[in-house]
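Reagents: none. Just compute today. Transposase.
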Amino acid sequence: MTVPGIGLTLATVIPLQIGSTERFASAANFASYARCVERQYLISGKKKGEGNARNGNKYLAWVFVEAANFALRFCDPGRHFYERKNAKISPVVARKASAPKLARVFPYAEEAQVV
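Predicted 3D structure written out:
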C-alpha cells in the first residue's frame, strides 16, 4: 500500500525537504511544518500570532497540494472527501483541505517504508 497521490517525484522531494520524520513529535506537528494546517496559537482564549502564517516549509505545502490533486483524481476516498467539501466551500479550498489528510499519513507510511 502506498500513499495516494504521491508518486516517484513527490516521494523523492519529501525526504529531501524534511530529512527524517523522527524530529517531529507527532503527525500533526509534521502537517503543521508542511503548512497544511491553520496555525493556532491561543493564550487565555485569545488568538495570537497572526503574523506567523509563513512558518514551515513552502515546498512541502506545494507537494501535499499536488498530491491531493492526484489523490482526488485517482483515489475514491480522496474524491469523496473532496466532493463533500466542494459542496460546502469553493473548489480551491476543498483541494487545500485534502492536503492535511495526506500530510498526516506520510510519517507513518515512511516509517513502514511503503512510499
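The chain has five helices and two strands.
Action item: order primers for follow-up constructs.
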